Amino acid sequence: MTSFSERKKEAAPLEEAFQELLKAYRLEGKFREKSLIHEWGDLVGKTIADRTQSVFIQDKKLFVKLSSGPIKREIQMNKSKILQLIEDRFGKEVVTDLVCL
């Protein structure tokens, strides 16, 4: 009979098991894309998040629709910084470009 502690050592941590499942079904990229969209507000902050109308990814491009012209210009000027933040947090292959709408 195996004890609880022995079983716990044999079981993979939940996050590791989840990552293996994503790999097995080839869903890693889609999961990262959805995570990026979901975490857009955390990534750019409240001011930009409040003026963001929609965020979506198509053909490795992140499209962001904004309600403020000045915020749009700010994002365009800081595009490389934002792309670097995305790369650091979600990996290099998630998006290659940022388009403001």
UniProtKB/TrEMBL annotation:
It comes from the Bacteria. It holds the Pfam family DciA. This is DUF721 domain-containing protein. It comes from Algoriphagus kandeliae. The lineage of its organism: Bacteria, Pseudomonadati, Bacteroidota, Cytophagia, Cytophagales.
